[in-house]
Structure formats: C-alpha cells, structure tokens
Amino acid sequence: MLANESIKTRQLPDKSLLFAILAMIMFGWIMSFSASLAHFNSHNWFIKQTIFISTGLILGLLVLKIPISLFKKVSVPLFILTLILLAMVFLPSPIGVNVNGSYRWISFGFFNFQPSELMKLAMILYMAGFLIRQEKDVRRPWMGFLKTILIVSAADILLLLEMDIGATLIITLTAIAMLFAAGSYLTQLGIVVCAFIGVVFIFIINDPTRLYRLTSYLHDPSQVHQTWQALIGIARGGWFGTGLGGGIQKYSLLPEPQTDMIFAVIGEELGILGMLFVLLSYTYILGKGFNIAKIALKKGRKYSSFVAFGICTWFAMQITVNIGMNLGLLPPKGFTLPLLSYGGTSIIFSIISLAILMRVDMESRTGYVKQRDYV
Predict the structure, then answer these.
(1) CA 246 – CA 293 distance, rounded (Å)
(2) Which of 2, 75, 97, 268 could serve as 233's disulfide partner, Cβ 3.0–4.6 Å?
(3) pLDDT digits (tens, 9 = 90+) for 206-251
C-alpha cells in the first residue's frame, strides 16, 4: 500500500534562504538599473524590471502554496506545451520576434517571452518524473536511455534551430546530471556525452561568429572584445569600486552590461567586495538547495529530490559560465546571471524555480507523508 500524502501541517519557508534570495533580487534590481544607465530609456528599463520582479514574486508566493505532487502531475503537459512554444518562435511577426537574426522570443505586447527559459524548468520537472517511472524498467537499460535521448533531443533540436547553443547546453547538461545523480544509464551516459560534445563542436565550426570567438579566446582571451572590456572594468574597481553608478565601461564599451556582463559592472562599481558578496550569496543559496535535495532523498521523496537537484544544477552551471565569462576564464556566451541580470522571462522563472525549491524544503519539514513516487 502506498502512503497517503494528504496529511498537512503548516510550515513556513526557510527564513535564511528566503532572506538570501530576496537580498539577491533587490541587489540585482539596483545593479540592473545602474548597468542600464548607458541607455537613454534606462527609466523604462527600470520600470519593466520592477514589473518583472513583482510578477515573479507574486507567482513565487503562489508556487509556495502548491504541492510538489501537482507539479509532477502537470510535468508532461507542461513539457509538451513548452515544445509548442519553442516552435512558435519561428512564426512570422507579430508572434515570432527576430532580434539580431535570432528567433528566440514570442511577442506578448509588453514584453517578449523566451520559451527556452521555461524549458529549463519544464525539462527538470519532466525528467524527475521520468526517472521515477524508469526505475521499474531496469531490465532494458538501452531502451530507457533511448527514451531519455528522444526527450532531450526534442528540445535540443528546436533550440539549435534557434541557434541558442547556450540554452541547449544548460538544458542538456542538467538532464545528464540528473541521470547521473539517479545512478541511471552510466555506461550509456559516457557514450552520449561524447556524441553531444561532437554535435556542439560541429555547430560551432559552422558558425563563423562563434568560431571566431572561440579561436580568439583560445589564442589570447584579451583579444575578445567583451572579455577585454569586462577585465578593464573589474581592474578599475579595485577592492571598493568606483561607486554605484560610477562605472564607465557600460557606456558603449561593454556589450550587454545589464544582462550577460552585469558581473563586470558589479566589479567596476562595487569592487572585489561586491563580487565576493555575489559569490558568497550564490554559494549559500546553492549549498542550502543541494542540502534540501539530499534531505528529501533521505525521506524517500525521490521526485522532490530530483527536482531540487535539477534546479540547483541548472543555477550552478549558469552562474559558473556567466561569471567565468566575465572574468575571462571561459569564452563569451549569452548567459544571464540568475536573479541579477535584466530580463523578464529569466527573472520570473528564476524566482518560480527557487520557490519550488523552498516548497520542497517546506514539505520535507511538514507532516506530508511519502510521495507517490512509484505510481
């Protein structure tokens, strides 16, 4: 007999984790405004980001009231819906939006919705349920692994058609990490990871812009414009920075200062201390998050554990790549910095995902009995 999961007791979110997340959101709200001062319409950017953050917080509060079991039930239709949205970006205007030759957005009038951000969360919710279902079919490992590849490939193909290699890497590597954490298909994983690296390499060498960035970086990172300008800004900041709003690299020198390169703006204006604040805050949030996944697994809540692990893995990879890119440790790529960068879809789904993480923690500390992990 499966345990009933209808027993509930009231539980509040972890106060220290909630405070750390809210502090980062407020910090990002201020820094994204400072980084956008180079634009004549910076106040419009500020108002939009305020609306995006408010929307994310409202949705996050609603998510805190939703049982994780409901996310498990809707994970399949949500994944299918997200695939449809990924395909809709190729529709002609006014639905599909073309920005600098890339089709990655759907226009909703006030803002452009980016389905790839939703896919990051949808893939995690779906893969967590898929791993639970596949536990019953251990006799045919290649068949189960083939199903996994088909699921991930369905999203990857659409993302690669959009030429969004960054989102493709994050989503694929998150799914692979979840498989590895579940102890599933380890032999098959090694083979497919090698094949995936080969496919990404082919896409890079067939795109002159990406190939130039990679070869320039490998030859001399300082030759890459974004990297060089970011390092100049960080060097100007020293220990204490030039002061909030006092940076000059964002004025036409540093590309995308309010999104991809916001960490360099933080380094210039708030110095090493500002960058350490960001690094320590992320470390604390992710440390708590992975611990939440561990505790959920110990309590037999495998679906919740896989979801928490997937969310933390996604954040960890995106944070590492973005900061590494700003510090010249990795080639430049279009990755936003979660909770800090400007962007509607990114900030909204980052907040929602962290709310799901806190919900996992709340259920682990309440009277909810074991989930129906084996249904």
Answers:
(1) 41
(2) 268
(3) 666 666 666 655 555 555 667 778 788 888 888 888 888 887 777 8
